[in-house]
Amino acid sequence: MKKSMIVAAVALACGAAQAAAPAATAVVPRAENAFLSQADAAARSARVSNVDYTLDFTLTGKETFSGTTTLAFDLSDAGAPLTIDLDKANLVSLTVNGKEVAPQYNQWFITIAPADLKAGRNSVTVSYTRLHSTNGEGLHRMVDPVDHRVYTYSHFEPAAAHQMFPVFDQPDLKGTYEITVTAPADWVVSSTKRETGIQDIGNTKRWTFPRTKKLSSYNFAMHAGPYKVWEDHSGPYPQRLFARQSVAAQVSPQDWFNYTRRGLAFFDRYFGVPYPFEKYDQLLVPDFLYGAMENAAAITFAEGRFLHQDEMTAAQKQNLAGVIMHEMAHQWFGDLVTMKWWNGLWLNESFASFMGTLATAESTEFTNAWQGFYSGAKQGAYVQDQRVTTHAIETPVPSTANAFDNIDAITYSKGASTLKQLRHLLGEEVFRQGVHNYLVKYSYQNAKLDDFIGSLGEAAHRDLSGWTRQWLYEPGVNTIAAEYSCAAGKISSFKLRQSAPSKAMPTLREQRVQIGLFNLGADGLALSKNVAVTYQGAVTAVPELKGAACPDLVYPNYQDWGYAQVQLDKKSFATAQSSLGKVDDPLLRSMLWQSLWDGVRAAQLPLNEFLKAALANAPGEKDYTLLGDITGKIRASKAYLDKMGPSAAAYTAQVSVQLEQMAFAAANAASGDKNFQRRWFATYVDVASSPGALAQLSDILAGKLVVPGLNVSQDVRWEIVNRLNRYAYPGAAALLAAEQARDPSDSGQAAALSAAVVQPDAKVKAEWLANIADLQTKLPFSKVRRAMESLYAPEQGALSELSAAQRLAQLGQVDKAAGPVFMRSYANTMIPANCTPVSVQRLQGAIGKLKDLSAGTRRALLVTHQEDERCVAIKKAMTVN
């Protein structure tokens, strides 16, 4: 998670000979740029060991902070320079082994000359000042617009610790940290350990923390500000929860403490290794780049995802529980045992995603967590794995500039799905024992993929090298399909066929699945038989199904054990299309809905046919999790229709009214169930576009129309204001101004910005395009990112066209001038795609011309082109006039 306003560097390939050679004569001078290559990191870790940091920070709440860092370390040789990472600081003094030296510093790293070093123990002390960051990395600073209090927090992944203090900023040079912080008297400070002393010094306090155990630099943390703090001592590990004072009323601390307590008990038991960090702090922080971060014992969470101005819905609570469990799993797998280099980041995240879902399902009320995983995270992985930019789970990372190039749904969700099916393949207890052995063997150390797989293989008494090659080093998702024949009402033969996605990705894989047979009867579609099968190769015979009743539907990945696209046979697809309401099992219903949606995205099932099924079945859906999946697909359908523009305008207008009426009626009918009602009302807001629906929203905002049971919270008010401004409803701008006055909070400012930017006004779009392009803007990056996300709504294709050519022409220039953090948002929101053959051709031309884009930006361009082609194909497949 990297700094945004720096010139992107050309990544260096990792040369094996260079990385392996510790001799002084083999040390090649480090490239003069902001990033660390794997080769340079390997060369440095071959020389440096036993690192200890002594950190002293002075925080005032102003835009700069000061620090003094002493690094003590063993050096195997002193025959070559040594670099210490430190980003954009003003050096006050540099002392090496007791002698003050003139700094050799390029604003990215300090170079210590060989003459100042010695073989054996060394000490380097750096005193410096630095600006706080405002992009979410390093030591981020935010001024609360409500009460003007200042809050800071640290964020270091993947390699941003050097934006806060001098450090060997690579995961395999673990160190210990002893920290002292001087801060304003009304501030509290959280770090990896609990403080051992707080000393009053005038208007400040000096916080002293004991030395930590060994941690990678990206796992260490220090957060400070006038946070509201809640405490819980009901479990074996003391818990604290932090939030800004102005948002404290939105926090439900008992929910946080409850899920955290349950999770810690689950992981202690599952891993068989006690929680390693003694206390458990969690902080809700503003302007956060991601969902959450697993800093050891001082975990940070994005306010925007976890603060709500109404009682949390069941879905919001499940999201909270799942993310708490994900970050908690990292405390063992990631913090206690850490990857050696960033190519192992996928395993870190995949394991936490898998274990987080398992812990949620087995230790909270959300026992259907795997159903949510299937319809959410796993579908994201399938989509990603079918793109032109698909990649293996394990990929090279030549430099820290590339650490997040392949961090996506494959990294998180395909990896988690792969671990899930490996657990079925090996057996649950064998898998757990292998994980336990791994954590015990490599505690407080760094490990590689082979170490983890080796531990599982030893527990299973089998060689997993073939499995590893198939699943982790080869890209793409396989398709499985049932091939069977019936005679006299019975199955006479049954095979499971596996196919590869293309000749370029021919790998066929081994995994274990369940095959479910279903028959229609008076009570609906019922399971008649299921068998577990381990398959590999192109065809696997399933003799166990011979003689079973000829099914109306076959699902060859029943209960979602495996990771594979399911291709329903013709009879099964027809049953799925006609009998969604006759399926009792919510997970199977989810899978059948997904089969229909897969047909839409492949341009095989017309979008209007899918919407017929949605209008007929969605109002009767009784499973809350599945309803969220269905309404998500309805929103995606509406977005496709809006992108299609004038050619689909008549049908879009007609079906939009039908969707509005369905959602509004369902919201009214669900007045006795707040969770269902809020889900349906949110859907209504998200599909409302007709004059009648917008007028109803305006009346609800004004209190003229009351939906029985619905609390029109501040969050809901902003959603309505945004929708009214998006469609230029008369008086919408005045409503926006009034809502800004009503809610001056940071979240209110962000919501107001979205509502302003989304207005269908060419002048507004031009002004915000200029703001986004200004890399020297004083706006916090969180606001710039919000503007990017809001600028061009799907129905605003004509407005997007006004600047489309300009944005594509300038993409290469922006990519070179901005850093990876900025480009991850920019490339995913600002590349124009307008669902026309002209737009597709324009993108194809850009792909041919822009050869020098960074890896992440080029991927975004390729994906945008592919999805634009998909939208055109879906439009062609429509069967309406």
Automatic annotation (TrEMBL):
<dbReference type="Pfam" id="PF17900">
    <property type="entry name" value="Peptidase_M1_N"/>
</dbReference>
<keyword id="KW-0732">Signal</keyword>
<dbReference type="InterPro" id="IPR027268">
    <property type="entry name" value="Peptidase_M4/M1_CTD_sf"/>
</dbReference>
<dbReference type="InterPro" id="IPR024571">
    <property type="entry name" value="ERAP1-like_C_dom"/>
</dbReference>
<keyword id="KW-0378">Hydrolase</keyword>
<dbReference type="GO" id="GO:0016020">
    <property type="term" value="C:membrane"/>
</dbReference>
<dbReference type="GO" id="GO:0042277">
    <property type="term" value="F:peptide binding"/>
</dbReference>
<dbReference type="GO" id="GO:0008270">
    <property type="term" value="F:zinc ion binding"/>
</dbReference>
<dbReference type="GO" id="GO:0005737">
    <property type="term" value="C:cytoplasm"/>
</dbReference>
<dbReference type="GO" id="GO:0005615">
    <property type="term" value="C:extracellular space"/>
</dbReference>
<dbReference type="InterPro" id="IPR001930">
    <property type="entry name" value="Peptidase_M1"/>
</dbReference>
<keyword id="KW-0645">Protease</keyword>
<dbReference type="Pfam" id="PF11838">
    <property type="entry name" value="ERAP1_C"/>
</dbReference>
<keyword id="KW-0479">Metal-binding</keyword>
<keyword id="KW-0862">Zinc</keyword>
<comment type="similarity">
    <text>Belongs to the peptidase M1 family.</text>
</comment>
<keyword id="KW-0482">Metalloprotease</keyword>
<dbReference type="GO" id="GO:0070006">
    <property type="term" value="F:metalloaminopeptidase activity"/>
</dbReference>
<feature type="signal peptide">
    <location>
        <begin position="1"/>
        <end position="19"/>
    </location>
</feature>
<feature type="domain" description="Aminopeptidase N-like N-terminal">
    <location>
        <begin position="53"/>
        <end position="218"/>
    </location>
</feature>
<dbReference type="InterPro" id="IPR045357">
    <property type="entry name" value="Aminopeptidase_N-like_N"/>
</dbReference>
<protein>
    <recommendedName>
        <fullName>Aminopeptidase N</fullName>
        <ecNumber>3.4.11.2</ecNumber>
    </recommendedName>
</protein>
<dbReference type="InterPro" id="IPR050344">
    <property type="entry name" value="Peptidase_M1_aminopeptidases"/>
</dbReference>
<dbReference type="Pfam" id="PF01433">
    <property type="entry name" value="Peptidase_M1"/>
</dbReference>
<dbReference type="GO" id="GO:0043171">
    <property type="term" value="P:peptide catabolic process"/>
</dbReference>
<keyword id="KW-0031">Aminopeptidase</keyword>
<feature type="domain" description="Peptidase M1 membrane alanine aminopeptidase">
    <location>
        <begin position="258"/>
        <end position="471"/>
    </location>
</feature>
<dbReference type="InterPro" id="IPR014782">
    <property type="entry name" value="Peptidase_M1_dom"/>
</dbReference>
<feature type="domain" description="ERAP1-like C-terminal">
    <location>
        <begin position="553"/>
        <end position="861"/>
    </location>
</feature>
<dbReference type="InterPro" id="IPR012778">
    <property type="entry name" value="Pept_M1_aminopeptidase"/>
</dbReference>
<dbReference type="InterPro" id="IPR042097">
    <property type="entry name" value="Aminopeptidase_N-like_N_sf"/>
</dbReference>
<dbReference type="GO" id="GO:0006508">
    <property type="term" value="P:proteolysis"/>
</dbReference>
<dbReference type="GO" id="GO:0016285">
    <property type="term" value="F:alanyl aminopeptidase activity"/>
</dbReference>
